[in-house]
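User: Show me a protein chain along with its predicted structure.
Assistant: Here is one chain, sequence first, then structure tokens.
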Amino acid sequence: MTGPARALWWHYLLASLFIAYCGIASARSGALWYAAGLFAVSLLLLVALAREYAADDERRAAAVRAERAARVRTRQDGIWVALERTCCLRSWESRGAGHDPLRCARKDQAA
């Protein structure tokens, strides 16, 4: 969780607790309609808190997936570059399909 996201999370929590306290104070003084409204707003803030937490997990998971995909793509590109540099023209045209670099005797390199 980043710094601003964590600060927002704590603000939601503190605001919810304060509004719940105001709802309790309103209920004690006899204003039940105000207390019910304040408790509803407090619950809405708790829902926002849970949503922010879930969104942070989704952002973290998406970042990990993107990093893994980039890592695999880079590794595969490096493998193909090495194969194209060292092998014959036949393997380059077929992108390595049905080609054994250990038994390859054709080196189509210009002198």
